[in-house]
Amino acid sequence: MTSENKLSYCSFCNTHKDKVKKLIVGDDVAICSDCIELCTNLIEDENSVVESQSKEEEVKYDPSSIKEYLDVHVIGQDSAKTVLSVAIANHYKRITYPPKDLDIAKGNVLIIGPTGSGKTLLAKTVAKYLKVPFVVADATSLTEAGYVGDDVESMISMLVNAAGGDARLAERGIVFVDEIDKIARRSESTSITRDVSGEGVQQALLKLVEGTVCRIPAGGGRKHPGGDMLEVNTKNILFISGGAFVGLKDIIGNRKNGSTIGFGADIKDKKVEGDLTEVTPDDLTKYGMIPEFIGRFTTTVSIKELNKEELLRVLTEVKNNYIDQYKYLLSIDDIKLEFTDEALEQIVENCLTLKTGARGLHTEIERCLMPHMFNTKKYRENNVTEINITREQVLEPKLLI
Ligand SMILES: Nc1ncnc2c1ncn2[C@@H]1O[C@H](COP(=O)(O)OP(=O)(O)OP(=O)(O)O)[C@@H](O)[C@H]1O
Ligand SMILES: [Mg+2]
User: Fold this and answer.
1) 222 falls in which pLDDT band (50, 70, 90)?
2) 25 to each of 5, 18, 40, 244, 325, how far by Cα in Å?
3) How far is the CA of 202 from the centre of ligand 1 (A)?
4) Which one of 77, 146, 227, 247 has the largest count of C-beta atoms within 10 Å of its C-beta?
5) What are phi and psi of 214, to 5 degrees?
6) 282-306 in b/e burial notation, b at 16+ Cβ within 10 A?
7) Residue 388: in which H helix or E strand, if any?
8) Per-residue pLDDT at 260
9) What percent of the chain lies above the pLDDT cut of 90?
10) What does the alpha-carbon distance between residue 160 and residue 384 come to, in Å, rounded to a whole number?
């Protein structure tokens, strides 16, 4: 075929120019209008997939959407949820759309607040929302490498396990380090003996939290010479630390109290309890955290003790609440479970005196239902199909038959 002849046909579908609407001819190729249309459609389809993907991401890393999700699962703690949502959105924006010539520092998160008020729950819920691998590690069980116990890199092994062995997926995950206050330095003076479980662990955590490549045994388990190793970069792993920091309020109070010396000596004598939302890095250093450690946790989230109304909502409103859980358990034995409003209030009252936060609700419900749950067989034999928990039953659980 001569070159002129060749250019009378579409190079893609080989149709003659007379049989198509238009044939666009280049130096040595030609394309017909039908093929152009096909290509345009293909490109448009692809664009719309990319667009819908990025729209989904936008929703995902938008703080108000994160907060909305948290609101369904975590009661109260409003300002903590706002601060946390912004920190999480920023972290995942940074690692999903890494800037080319700008270095955005990594910011880990520290959650401070009383026991049973939702620290672990907040972290767990955020991970669930983001659908990223998540593990809870206990700071008290960690030791420096070389000492008896789990070294800090074991947390990364756990995370890889949670990611089903996929190291790349684990590199976007969240590690929640619980009881971080328990690895505070014992005293402000440095001693000659090494503080293996406190300051030593804080030191060991520094590199990991900031971002380092760690080598962990492939397939989980402990390190052993000659075993296959897996490299995991921790630079995009988000570390959330949580601790009750008992006594921190006094440190904050003393600082604030001290600053008012000039206004009258008598104020200084009064014990002022500080507000956790006013915590400064200095207060945490006084508590026994080393400054380098605190410096790597740029967002501090303070949570409060749950009040009566909030505890009631934890009991009955929140998704997967304890009442629904026990209703379900008893329904397996064909028994209907009900609580009167007074009973619920009494449970909350008892819980407030226990000072164990929402954790106490679980203990209280278990206590109330124990005799009934033990005797479900007997109830069934006697045609008792409904348990109505009243205030009296909460004060003194009694068998119905
Ligand atoms: N704000 C909350 N909203 C709903 N449920 C809550 C809330 N706080 C606590 N709970 C319930 O109480 C349980 C204990 O909470 P969580 O483990 O988050 O406490 P924590 O603050 O981590 O306490 P600790 O300092 O003892 O580890 C959770 O499983 C959850 O069911
Ligand atoms: Mg916890």
Assistant:
1) low
2) 12, 14, 18, 74, 71
3) 25
4) 77
5) -115, 150
6) ebbbbbbbbeebbebbebbbbbbbb
7) strand 386-389
8) 52
9) 58
10) 49
Residue type for position 70: L
How long a stretch of residues is the chain? 401
Q: Where are the beta strands (DSSP E) in 49-166?
A: 109-112, 134-138, 142-143, 150-151
Task: Name the residue among 61, 43, 33, 181 with its Cα closest to residue 126.
Answer: 61
Residue identified by tokens 């936008």 is: 58
Q: Which amino acid is at 241?
A: S
Mutate to test the pocket of ligand 1, among 84, 119, 121 (most ligand atoms within 8 A of CB): 121
Q: Provide the b/e sequence for 91-124 (b: ≥16 CB within 10 Å).
A: bbbbbeeeeeeeeeebebbbbbbbebbbbebbbb
Give the pTM. Answer: 0.78
Which of 60-74, 190-204, 223-237 holds the top average pLDDT? 60-74
Q: Is the CB of 117 under 6 A from ligand 1?
A: yes
* Chain Cα centroid distance, residue 348: 26
Is the CB of 118 inside a 6 Å radius of any atom of ligand 1? yes
How far apart are the C-alpha atoms of 321 and 307, rounded to whole Å? Answer: 17
DSSP sequence for 119-144: HHHHHHHHHHHHT--EEEEEGGGEE-
